[in-house]
Amino acid sequence: MATEGTAAPAGAPPAQASDQAATVPPNAPTTSTTEPTQLTGAQLKAKAKAEKAARRAKVKEVKEAVAAAQPAPADAKGGKGKGKDGSQTLGPQGQGKAGLAHRPSMNGRRPSILIVEKDIRSSIPECFSHLPMAKRIHPSHAHKDVHPAVLTVGQQMATFAIKDSIARLEATLLAFRKVIESYETPKGNSLSRHFVPHVLNPQIEYLTECRPMCFSMGNAIRLLKTKVNSFDIDTPEDEATEGLLEMIDLFINERITLAEFVIARNAAKQIQEGDVVLTYGSHRLVEKTLLRAKNNGQSFSVSIIDDPYDRGGQVMATALREVGIRVFYSPNLGGLKTNVERATNVLLGAEAIFANGSLHAAAGTADIAVAATAASKKVVALCETINFDRERVSVDALTYNEIDPEQNSAESFRLLYDTTRDHYITGVITEFETGTGNSPAQAILALLRKQEDPALN
Q: Are 201 and 388 in contact (CB under 8 A)?
């Protein structure tokens, strides 16, 4: 009986070999031979399928990495949240700080993705969006023409290492002095035409980006620009440079150092034997006045109501106690009524005075002035004339102010200053001599005119 043959026809590949080729795994290594192996249709189809699956896996992996890098919403307590991969993201307290999140491992490596820096102003309501805020600017992001001395001052202002208006003014002028000393007029230009737009303005822009200019800085810069523009185009560079340096030195001596001395002397005359002087927070003019009154032999007490955020009053209280002055200290406005009733007069430091006589000072000053006026206490403000603003008026604290970057979160923010209307101020003591130096707040424009025109004295 004839048996059924199982052998394949001659010249055809064995059936077993064909079946094995069709079931080869996509990633299985192929055995190299001396002759290149030609893939069958089934093998090509399996290879294309494997490559397509690899591409899909790679796309999915990238999407997961991008999702992991996005900051998750903060929890109800305003703390840190966690992403899908367990990595922490920044809550409101960490606004403005960048962190690193890692995407899944790819080929044995773990590249990092930088989380984009979040805008710290995003939580401020729109009605307050016009108010500026100090911010740190990396030196590498500054204009290439910004002088190293100005870079340093800008960083100190942004971090509030220098925060008093007059301290900021003096630091700015000293930095500008170094800019002028290192300046050389390019060939074919003159100092009067080149210095302001190409050298001075980049310095000013950088300082303004770090923190908004205070009133005294704006006034001083206008005077400096006026001095530069007054030079004739043919004025030798050495002569013009020397004139600018001399102006800055004279300005610091007269409008800062001497002004501080005169104000402290005149204000100390307002303190009588047995007085109880009420003040708010810490201000260098107030402190120098109290120390001067003590040196004059007066015996008096001081009530300090401190700014609960700044705590500068603690430092001033320690300095006053060291020289034998009796000090009553309150950490916040909770003791306002008691301190006002105890006081005989009130001394307040000012950041600036507007053209309508309104006082621009640390937040909380207005509360002291209003309460003292209601209790029929004399309220005297201390301020240099370089801090006077002859052009702007203010009746509230929402027009000209700053947002405290250290007290800004998703839940709340704090303004650095408030505005005290002129009818709550009994008088203003400046370096300008008017008898005792005590002038009504409404007389600011007359004071400025007399100061600029000696013929009116």
A: no
Rounded-to-integer distance, Cα 427 and Cα 357, Å:
10
The pLDDT, as a whole number, for residue 173 is 98
Q: Residue 395 pLDDT more than 60?
A: yes
Query: In Å, what is the CA distance from 176 to each residue of 165, 194, 200, 216?
Result: 16, 15, 8, 15
The overall pTM is greater than 0.85: no
Q: Which fold has domain 139-259?
A: Four Helix Bundle (Hemerythrin (Met), subunit A) (1.20.120)
- Tens of pLDDT, residue by residue over 381-393, are 999 999 999 889 9
Q: What digits encode the pLDDT tens for the residues 349-375? A: 999 999 889 999 999 999 999 999 999
Distance of CA 418 to the CA centre of its chain: 18
Q: CB–CB of 214/353 below 8 Å?
A: no
Where are the domains positioned within the chain?
A: 139-259, 270-456
Higher pLDDT, 116 or 136: 136
Q: Cβ distance 252 to 231 under 8 Å?
A: no
Domain 270-456 class? alpha beta
